[in-house]
Structures are given as C-alpha cells and as structure tokens.
Design goal:
The structure is a homodimer.
Chain A lengths: L4 H24 L8 H13 L2 E2 H8 L3 H13 L3 E5 L7 E5 L1 H8 L4 H13 L2 H20 L1
Antiparallel strand pairs in A: 1-3, 2-3
Helix pairs in contact in A: 3-4
The structure holds a DNA duplex.
Chain lengths: ~150, ~150
Amino acid sequence: MIDDDSDVLDVASELRITVGSLVRRLRQHRGPDDPSVPETTVLARLDRDGSCSAADLARHGHVSPQSMGVTIAGLQERGLIARTPDPTDGRRILLSLTAAGGEALTDRRNHSTRSIAEAMSATLTAAEIAAVSDALPLLDRLRGAL
Amino acid sequence: MIDDDSDVLDVASELRITVGSLVRRLRQHRGPDDPSVPETTVLARLDRDGSCSAADLARHGHVSPQSMGVTIAGLQERGLIARTPDPTDGRRILLSLTAAGGEALTDRRNHSTRSIAEAMSATLTAAEIAAVSDALPLLDRLRGAL
DNA sequence: TATTGTTATACTCTATAACTATA
DNA sequence: TATAGTTATAGAGTATAACAATA
C-alpha cells in the first residue's frame, strides 16, 4: 500500500522511467503506414467528440497550435481528416474524420497495435492485462492533472 | 476481465495513446536542471548494475550506439558520469556514476518527480496510486518483450 | 572480420517568434 | 485587442551511414 509522500515520489520516479522507455520502444514498432501517436490521438478525439478546430485540439492536448498544425497537415494530406470552413466564424476551420480516417483509427491489422497486443498476450497473464487496462484511465486522469 | 483477443487489441490501442500523451506531458514538466528521461534511464542503470560501456547501455536500452553516445556526452559534460578506459580492452570505455550523478538520480526535489507526485496525490486515491504502482513492473515486462 | 566508439547527416515531434486574416 | 491559422526557425531525441582504432 502507498502510505506516505516518499512512496509517492518513488512511484512518480519509476513512472517517468517506465513510460518513457516504453514509449520509445512503441515508436520503434510503428509500421510505415500506421498513424503516429500524435496522429492517433487526434483521430481518436475527432471520433469521440465530433468535429472541432485545430485550436481546440491544441488546447485540449496541451500542444502548441503550431505543433498541432503539423499533425493536422499530415493527416489531411493522407485524406484521414477533412477541413471545412466554419460558416459562422471566418477564422475557424472545422476538422472532421473521413471514412478513411475512421478506418485507420480502428484498423486492427495496424502494425503498432498488433505487435503490442501480441507482446501482451505472450508475456502477461489475463489478470495482469486486466491490471494494465485498469491503470490506463488512472494514468489518463493523471495526465489531465499535470 | 480480459477474455479474448479483441479486448487485448483494445487495451493495446488505448495503451499506445495513453502512455504517448502522458510522456509528452511529462516532458513539458521537466525543470531546467532535471535529467531527461533517457538520461535518467542511464543513471538508474549505472546505479543498479554498476559500470559498463556505452555499447552495453545501447544494447540493453534498444537504442543505437550513436544515440547513446549523445546521451552519454551530455551526462559527462555535467559531471554526472565518469569515463575510464577499460584496462583489458583498448576499445572500451567504462562508464560509472559519479557522486553528483548519484545525487541527481535520487534528488527528491527534482522538479519532474515532484510535479508528478503532486499530481498523483491530488487526483488519485491511495488505492489508485497503488494500482498504478503495481502496473509499472507489468509495463516494464511488456517493454522487454517488444 | 567483428566490435567500440565517433562524426556527419537527417527525420520526427515539439517549441517560440512573427505574420495575416477575421472577430 | 484577441483569436485562428500559417510560415520560419530551432531544439530534443533518435536513426542510418561512414569512419578510425582495437580485438
């Protein structure tokens, strides 16, 4: 059990190393056509919450509008998202998922997702996979609080 | 409970987005003097397993020797690690933690670690922090299998 | 011939600064 | 004046390719 501040600092320190190393490794397993992590994050958000502007995505993801612009441009170039001017505000451009974008998001043959799932099945028990699954929403809440 | 392959694919997909977004956010919370994630990883390994060569660190961390060279150079410049030629093999240079490197590794006032710990205490219950703590070794095993 | 380490170069992701157009 | 989006530039982290020294 975690019962004092020093233990929380230990968990924080391990968290940083563990997820940092894991992400580096995950990046190396991306297939040539797989959407990158920032790209997948945008696709997932558009799928979940409907269309919104690049500035909205940047604010929500705590990324600079310029960085989001780069991600957006790559997705649009490949036809995974569509851009339509906001009829009520000439400055805004609304982004939405295309059919191809929806498919890319849920593509189970996606190399990244497949190799992660295979490694999980090979090295973790069902109970351990469930423990990881339960921890993900907690990590997401933690991210929101940072 | 996780009971079929499709569920594992779902967990894999969420894992990728969650840890990817979390790491991006963690990077933003690094203080000016804090060691970076790759740097901390090297310091932790030297602390745990004693001195070894840059090639050893690269192999173990699944990083190219050139990338490891960059990380090593930064650490040495700041006096956190020491380089001593291997007496039995003229090609190798053994790396070891200096006193300053050991302090940097365990520095609890480290801005990164502190802000993660504060966010954890503020947004997660003790039981939830314990759940995250339990999941970390599982994520580390997963990384090893990738 | 294989390994250790280095230098040079480039790619991905992200940031800051400066600009234009619209509100 | 504030906001949406763009362009230009830079930094961190990582990669591949080519090389020197040693085994």
